[in-house]
Design brief:
- There is one protein chain.
- This protein is an all-alpha fold.
- The protein contains 6 helices and no strands.
- The chain has one domain.
- α1 packs across α2, α2 crosses α3 and α3 crosses α6.
- The longest helix is centred in the N-terminal third of the chain and has 24 residues.
Length: 132
């Protein structure tokens, strides 16, 4: 691999970490803040966190704060209003019908965390979405 390319990747990773750190420090009690904190704790390269999350999801147990029902229920109650806004916005945009099996609080907590992570990954330049 070219040295300049390695330096570019390293600089980009530092910039992303700095953006996530700013979100983690300045965003009050929000899902964005929790996603940023998890990404910073997960690995020295936040891209790995997002890549693994998008590939395996919260159900894999990779988000340590959302493994047990007691934790997902607390997350749900803490972020209820924000979760409802995400759910309603996506339902209206995509005629999304959520077919949930199992614990609704658990499912919606994972859903909101993953959707917020997707938006955050776009915002910090990890994920590029191309609209049709």
């Amino acid at each position: 691999m070219d040295v300049n390319f390695k330096n570019y990747i390293s600089m980009k990773t530092k910039k992303i970490r700095k953006q996530l750190q700013k979100i983690s420090n300045n965003t009050g009690c929000s899902i964005r803040r929790e996603v940023a904190r998890e990404a910073l704790l997960y690995d020295t390269n936040p891209k790995e966190f997002f890549s693994n999350l998008f590939q395996h999801g919260c159900i894999s147990g990779m988000v340590t704060s959302l493994i047990y029902y007691k934790d997902t229920h607390a997350f749900f109650l803490r972020h209820y209003q924000e979760i409802e806004e995400i759910r309603q916005n996506l339902s209206q945009e995509d005629n999304l019908l959520m077919d949930t099996q199992g614990d609704l609080m658990n499912y919606l907590s994972w859903f909101a965390f993953e959707e917020t992570a997707r938006k955050l990954a776009v915002e910090v330049g990890i994920l590029n979405l191309v609209s049709p």
